[in-house]
Please model this.
Amino acid sequence: MTNPAISPSSKTSNLKVVHKSTKRSQQPFNIPTIAILVLLAIILLIINTVIDDSSKTSSMPESDINWDNPPCSPDDLSNDWKEVTPEMMQKNSQRREFQYKDTNFKIAFDEGILGQPQYRGKNHWHIYNPNGTGAKDYYLDKNGNPIHKNDKNSHIDATCK
Amino acid sequence: MQMKNEFEIFDSLHDTGLTSLEFNFEKREISLRFTLWDDLEQQEVPLQLNMLGVSKFQSAYPENLDFQVVGCHSAQVQQTGAHEYEATFLLDFLKNAVSWKVVIGFQRMEVSGGLTQAALIEKYGHV
Model:
């Protein structure tokens, strides 16, 4: 007459099973899972760094100039640069313009005039923003970031050291 | 002496923005509104020149260029008479720098706006 389903031995057996499954749910992250998560985190970090670096330099058009150590004068430009100074500019200012190969990338050299104050007395370069829309993003700084006309970082020192 | 100080503003008009050039024919006045860049606050700062007693306006406008004036490459002033002055502005177009030359003869000038002393030191202190 003994019902096997409610016998003491059956009860013990059922409890053991329940105990095992509870133990499993308390350890959701075993060593292989943690290793995979760490690996994913590293991959995401690398991707983020690459994207960040590319966004910093992507706006600087390609050329052979290192703007951390720019040429002292237009004489130091490579043959890939051709002078495109318009007549009006040539006649009225100390500015000279240069274009890189056949691209729309142009730079300007302002020759300092002896005795003139501020930037007008000092040789410097400007990097035109090929995608500029107005005064607010007329130039690029030496890292390729669009900057406002009159921003001090638009003047890149060309003094020979 | 006061006039000389006002004229020093022309030294800082290298590579600025220019938003308007207005004529008042009845009063013989011309106003130019520039935008300077405050390197400390990282914001535009307006500067207005009002030229009074205008006696001359010369313009060498370029052919075949769209009228897209964005700024001033440089400005210079010289005294041409006892109370007569002449300012020359070289103006930049969006894709063509130093394209438009404007000469204005005037007798007096008012200056309003401009950078603070601290912003001027930030901009020119290292030059």
Q: What stands out?
A: Residues 1-13, 17-23 of chain A have pLDDT under 50 and may be disordered. Residues 31-57 of chain A form the longest helix (27 residues). The first strand of chain A starts at residue 81 and ends at 83. Chain A has three helices and seven strands.
